[in-house]
Design a protein that fits this description.
single chain; mainly beta; Lipocalin; 4 domains; 8-stranded antiparallel β-barrel; 5 helices
């Protein structure tokens, strides 16, 4: 099929205690990217940590584990179909050790075995659903005539994750219903009672950062209302450096939009903020012991300083707010328009390439993903579709989901001319001739025996092993030609004509 080249973005890893305040994600996101609530059993004691996977600015997978002992780095992160593996780097008291994880990601669960020189530990976890950013308290300001009105809007979620809201004002009583938040837009209905008078109104606002801008519409007309998040200065992730006699260790502090949070993997019920002064308390059970800690400090922009106090004494803390890494996005536009490869041609391309279950197919410019989806369903092989168009990537992901082949097929938004193709055993193309030629330096690096099949367009300077013409009188595009090359490529002299 035909289309564009892609880019993709994601990753970051952390193990979380069973106490974690996050919520396992629904099966809607079957990818690895995000946070995972992991449970492990050490000598009969259940431990928890958070694995976080993301992609860095270069598009590479990165990860970390957050545990009671601090932050550990993940390296060599790999995902092929349902198989997941990585190496966990532990650094404690100047020593560095490694553990390896081998497991699977199936039906929204990440499970496997973590192996080190101390033995094997089983680990299992579910994805943590990010808390809706609209949750929390908002200082709302609007005008009625010339009078400025200040109120507080509190948005929360019940146990069924249904949104609800309160309008806290010194004037009247207010009931809010039908609270919805989608695509950064908050809407709700409100009935306000002032003595024996009732007034109905609606609200619609857009969230940008920590600001909520919208309109209240009632019998008084439309009134602009602006909201500022309470506690915006501390909401986010903080990397803490904690000083001790044995050296400095790092830990993660996460403050949610509603000012609940996590210290490492341990839940914090409420983070207090008074001006620049910040504090919290939390604790956990460790064997027969109860560990309690408290923090008191000061926030200055993106820096945090203070003192952490526990049963074992006090330690100085310095923190830096973490700016989320954003995957490097290609700004190039697609080189070709999207014209889907007819299904019978897809079948012929896979047949000519002699695809088997052992193959790994890369479709360069995958369009709606039909080639890799068909290969997965018919032959049971793994495939990766690459495209540069966001729309095509979305369509491909929907096609993968619809056909239940997410365990075999991966779709990424990337520029195909920047890819390392060396892992593929089959390459499929539906690009223009000059684009096929542009790929030759990458195709030259393929392992011997890799098959390359192209719909309709040849590769100037490379002699094909096979050319098949398919007659189709009913097709508006007429006949179809399929070209096959096998590596190493059979180069030929190119005429200057």
């Amino acid at each position: 099929m035909k289309s564009v080249h892609r880019g993709f973005g994601l990753v970051s890893l952390v193990f979380v205690l069973t106490l974690c305040a996050g919520v396992p994600a629904a099966a809607q996101d079957k990818g690895l990217i995000g946070d995972w609530d992991m449970k492990m059993n050490f000598d009969g004691r259940q431990m928890a940590s958070i694995l976080s996977f993301a992609r860095d600015k270069g598009g590479e997978l990165t990860g970390r584990r957050v545990s009671l002992w601090g932050i550990s780095e993940l390296k060599e992160i790999k995902r092929e179909g349902k198989d997941v593996s990585f190496v966990l780097i532990n650094r404690r008291r100047g020593e560095e050790t490694e553990s390896s994880f081998i497991g699977t990601l199936e039906k929204g669960k990440l499970s496997g075995v973590l192996t080190s020189d101390r033995g094997e530990v089983k680990a299992e976890g579910k994805k943590i659903r990010p808390m809706p950013r609209i949750l929390g308290s908002w200082n709302m300001t609007f005008k009625i005539g010339e009078q400025e009105v200040n109120t507080v809007l509190v948005v929360s979620a019940d146990k069924q994750k249904k949104l609800r809201a309160e309008w806290q004002s010194e004037w009247g009583e207010h009931e809010i219903t039908d609270v919805r938040f989608k695509d950064r837009k908050l809407t709700f209905n409100r009935v306000s009672t002032f003595g024996d008078r009732k007034m109905e109104s609606t609200y619609e606002g857009t969230l940008k950062g920590h600001t909520l801008n919208g309109m209240i519409e009632s019998e008084l007309g439309e009134i602009a209302a602006k909201g500022e998040r309470v506690g915006a200065a501390v909401v986010g992730r903080w990397r803490l450096e904690i000083a001790s006699e044995s050296g400095t260790r790092t830990q993660m502090l996460r403050v949610h939009p509603d000012l609940s949070g996590l210290y490492g993997p341990v839940p914090i019920k409420r983070v207090r903020l008074d001006g620049k002064q910040m504090g919290f308390k939390t604790g956990w059970e460790f064997g027969e012991r109860t560990i309690e800690i408290s923090f008191a400090g000061q926030v200055e922009g993106r820096k945090l300083t203070g003192e952490l106090t526990s049963n074992r004494g006090s330690r100085q803390v310095e923190g830096q707010k973490i700016t989320p890494a954003r995957a490097k996005e290609s700004s190039r536009k697609p080189d070709v328009i999207f014209v889907p490869t007819p299904q019978h041609v897809v079948e012929k391309m896979l047949e000519i390439a002699k695809v088997t279950k052992e193959d790994l197919i890369y479709d360069l410019g995958c369009g709606d993903g039909r080639i890799v989806v068909t290969a997965a369903k018919k032959y049971g092989c793994k495939g990766v579709g690459y495209d540069i168009s966001r729309k095509r990537v979305k369509e491909s992901l929907e096609n993968v989901e619809k056909n239940n082949v997410a365990d075999l097929v991966r779709i990424e938004r990337k520029d195909i001319f920047t890819l390392d193709l060396s892992e593929a055993s089959v390459i499929t193309l539906y690009l223009l001739p000059q684009l096929n030629v542009k790929l030759i330096p990458q195709l030259d690096k393929l392992k011997p025996g890799t098959r390359i099949v192209s719909h309709d367009f040849d590769m100037k300077g490379v002699r094909p092993d096979k050319v098949v013409v398919m007659s189709d009188e009913e097709d508006d595009y007429g006949d179809h030609t399929v070209y096959l090359w096998t590596t190493p490529l059979n180069k030929e002299e190119v005429s200057e004509e």
